[in-house]
Amino acid sequence: MSRVKKILVGILTFAILSGISACGRSNNGQIDERITIRLAAPQNAFIENFDTNLYKLWLEEQTGLRIEMTWLPAEDAERIALLSLTTGEGLPDAYIGFGSGNYEIFNNLNLQEYAGWGVIIPLNGLIEQHGVNLKAVWEELAGYDIKQYMTLADGMIYYMPGFSSSLITRYRQVMWVNRGWLDVLDIPVPSTTAEFRDMLIAFKTLSPNRNWAIDEIPLAGTEEHYGKQVYDFLFNAFIYNDEKHGRLLLENGIIGYAPIRDEWREALKYMHGLYQDGLFSPFSFTQSNQQHKQMANDPRDILGAFTSPGITFTVLQNSPEIMRRYVGIGPLTGPGGASYATVSLPLPKPNGVITSAAEHPAEVFKLLDLMLSVEASLMGRYGEYGVDWEYAREGDISIYGTPATIRIINQIWNKSQNKHLNQIVPYISRPGFSNGVTWEGSTTDGEYMNAQAAMLYRGHEPVEFVGEITFAAREECCFPLLRTDLERYLKRNVIAFITGEQDIESDDDWAEYIGGFYYWGLEHYLEIAQTAYNRMKRQSVR
User: Fold this and answer.
1) Long-range contacts made by residues 82-87, C-beta under 8 angstroms, separation at least 24?
2) What contacts 42, CB < 8 A, 6 or more positions away?
3) Residues of the chain with pLDDT under 50
4) Can you give the pLDDT at residue 18?
5) pLDDT at position 542
6) Considering 275, 322, 509, 542, which has the largest number of Cβ atoms within 10 A of its Cβ?
7) Is 72:38 a contact under the CB 8 Å cutoff?
8) Strand 349-354 versus strand 94-96 pairing type
9) What is d(CA 384, CA 387) in angstroms, rounded to the nearest whole number?
10) Sign of the alpha-carbon dihedral angle for 265, 263, 219, 487
């Protein structure tokens, strides 16, 4: 983009954001004397018309406010918002929706920086005075530590949360195996690493797809997508492995690092054996996510096992025959008795950030707090009561086999509609409802299959695990870089040991591998993590 064009875009952005009047005219031409709250959010294709949206009108009715929205082009939303935050010009009263997308503009480090600039405001005082629904959520969902994760290293809270929790999203490394092949070969679902290996051998040698072409691929993954690389799942049969949180361990409050432990080496020996015997596909280290999907959906029925956060991340939901091929299995038990499920903690997202431009910050806050109420959250997820959803009837069963709480009448999620704001606002998806949607009886429904698999992972969480750590600004500058370097080094060596490029049986090769982590800053990495973790624990007991 040319310099002139950039300037013009900046001027246009400023005009759009600052050209919102504090009051307006009603449909009959009279002056609207209500307080106007000005919101800005990335454009959302699933919201038809903000002005006539049922949820927005309900919010106005409940609060007596007038709510206006400035939609920012999704691809430029961060740049436009950052322009206003940097200059302090054209700020809305609050930014919403950035936590619901893949945006980094309101991550913890940035929030502290914006607060230092004076362009966003801390919410602690407003929460104390007006946070009726937020404080109720903290108490209702105390086991999720929402308050702890919302509190930054400086002790302040700068956003109102979006928060989703379900059993399905708690376990994101799930192994799926070819149910049809198990049936043809009369093999039980494996529960140990030894049984899993025997199953793969049968998949490779006995032509379970019955075309006798020896085209079966027993086990395959991809490096391109979280939860789809099978070695991450298999490590958990030897030692707890949490890729999402930097492979950190927690034992009696002390943070450690799984990849340098002896159990990690034993896991690599096991996986090298699978690779050496042609059971672990070499495509796992080179193919794209799309190629992995094609493998799983191949009409020739060629794939025996794979990992995926959910079945529909890999298999086409609109293909019930292909969906029927696969079944989720639980964590495997290794030779030492380890059998872990990686925990993906639900975290609050920064879905509502109030700026210093708000003339009525208490009214803005009370609006965002209302969005966390049960009624608002149900409407904000499922739509209009009695039209799009209703409470479950007596005898209704959820996808988990438990009594249902919600029955969907008209599925409008991720569709173009005008009933809610597609959870771009602060919201709370309460487990009692998200885990209680009525099952309509289809065994090839993706959510049902995911729920059945997720239940197999309960009871396999470690007693202690790190989860998410909130870092101070000085730590945030270093820790991600160290983590990236260590992870890049780790993956390169894991693949080398599995494929035999490096000898996992060689003590010299193993010692050199361990030394490499310290070269890439492991000691400092663990020191930062321990310091931040200790601080979080101190804050949580205040």
Assistant:
1) 83/10, 83/13, 83/14, 84/13, 84/14, 84/17, 85/114, 85/117, 85/119, 85/120, 85/355, 86/117
2) 71, 72, 73, 74, 77, 97, 98, 101, 103, 424
3) 1-23
4) 40
5) 60
6) 275
7) no
8) antiparallel
9) 5
10) negative
